[in-house]
Amino acid sequence: MASSDIGLAGELVGGGMEKEKTAAEMSAIMERIRLEDEESRVQAAGEIRRLTKTSSKHRRQLSDAIEPLVSLLRSGSPESGEAAILALLNLAVEDERNKIKIVEAGALQSLLHLLQSTNSSLQEYATAAVLTLSASPINKPKISASDAIPLLVKILGDGNPQAKNDAVRALYNLSAIAENLKVILPLQPVPSLINLLKTCKKSSRTAEKCSALLESLVNFEEGRTALTAAEGGVLTVIEVLEEGSLRSREHAVGTLLTMCESEKFCRYRELVLNEGVIPGLLQLTVQGTPKSQVKARVLLQLLRSSRHHKSELRPDTLDSSVCNIVSKIDSADQTRKAKKMLAEMVQISMEMSLRHLQQRASM
What we know:
The chain is an all-alpha fold. It has 23 helices and no strands.
């Protein structure tokens, strides 16, 4: 399953497995979804939802139901809206043509309305639908040109947990268009991203998307300022660097590196150092992805050059320890030696970390 279809949108909402339907049965469903009687259309939408839960064949066979379902989505009643949106979700998952067809049928306007719904379930389903549709490269510009981005950022801040997860993934999809970052940033998404990172599992896909979006946003001074101003912002990124998935850790170290490379002075570097980043960076030099390892080494060198860091950790100690770690990467007992050396480096940075904790406690 495509990563962008994971979440409510990727659960293929509905009942259990369905047997193959005959051509006559499929035609009967299509007839009912086109009736004027709303109750019959809702029932037909429920059957489409069930049939398309696990069958790509049924998704293709029932693609002509998209326009009637979009019409049902516009009808206004919560029951009709829910039935239509869940059927459209299952039609769209893992089917690029259906994703495009749903947007072409005019579903976006109704989905934007539901993103503002006070009914949390409908808002959640609409967010999942936008997430699924935004996975299509052809749909991204159309969704970006709508009012979806401000609504998604709002849901990121005050939606229910599932809606927040899907909102950040949808924003991540849309951030593939670089100009959208300039739309997202003034909406002040950083505090909400940090709050979501604090509450989600650091190894989750949600954490990956939050971390990736943060890495993109700190390319702008407004993003860097917002991250440092958010309560626990830098510390949360460091926690992802230590506890996240390989991809999340790569984005986290990229975020910190961008911040520390962005200025002539040491304000960001001192802030990052004060939050105790050294052990996590050293671990990344051994256990990270190739990109993470490179970024971690570059960031360690930047931190070493910081005036603050020179007084706490001698450059020759850092250089020697990092070189020792790197030189043992290919050895047979890599894990044991790496853990031993990392423990030594944690001990070296302990005094600095304890001092910072004492300073926090006295505030």
